[in-house]
Write a structure and sequence with these properties.
mainly beta; 9-stranded antiparallel β-sheet; 4 helices; globular
Amino acid sequence: MITNYTSTNQQDEAHNESMDLSRSANREVIPEQRKLDFATNTNSRTAISPLLLPLIVLCALSVAVFTEVQSSNNPHPTLFSASSLGSSAATVTLPFDYTFNTVETLEEAGVAMESTSPYWWLNSGGMMGIANGVGATNQGDLSEKSQWHKIYRIDNSVDTDGGYHPQNIFRLLTRSTWGDVREQVYMNITNDQLSQSVNRDESNGLLIFSRYQDENDLYYAGVRVDGTAVIKKKWGGSYHTLAQKVILPGIYNRLTSPNLLPHNEWIGIRLDTKTISSNAVKLTLYTDFGKTGTWKKVAEAIDDASNGIGPAITADGVCGIRTDFMDVLFSDFHLNSIANTP
């Protein structure tokens, strides 16, 4: 049975959620000629999958330019380049499929207009490699020579393990906005990053955003490392569980069982978001473990004024992807109108 309930426990995911935009908001990050050490370095603890080799070659061809600027108002590193390097957002119509078939490395940018992708804004996580139908977070340890290692070592050393793992706080947003939409993507966990950060906990997972207005107001849903499916709302900076259900066996333990989600297997996450009245939004979450093409409904919720957590988010917003303390691959991102789906 699918359980719907509301929780206002501010400790649950309080830090992880606040990182949606906060880390990059305090400094301007503008794309330039940058080296993205997407592959592991020679001291990496993670084996390199053959699936990642094209991405590793791509990143090895990049060139790094890093400038540190210190001031009394902004003690953090700042990257400078011509703003013309940013790409205009593409006009996207539904259905939309992003197949990750380009060959590029998308770098984090401080604002959406500075993203070099017409489709994506990488808001946190350093970089995403794209090649051969697969996108990927940084895999394993980031080289100390990487500019992103230097930036994260200063900006958020705790959650990125001294700058070695910016993928611990990966946030990828679309540059297009949507109202009633079906969003889905497949993700594959290649490795856990068992950080000592207190923010590595049971609330981490493979998640997708919907109706994202800003870092304070949004919906998200997906599967957590504790084996539960969840639908949540962030409103005015507060977090609220709209639905949650156990879908995988096992008991989460930070030390002995830190991730109950399957590894090296494609996991499909689908979220339908639909406004059903002037102040009510219905959210339905589906999963497809193993990329079988068969989707199973695992959670459902209706957000309206009766739950006491503010008005439903009825305005169009961006979609996106969030992963926590894991190395992850992505494939087959898909958007479609609810009216055009079965």
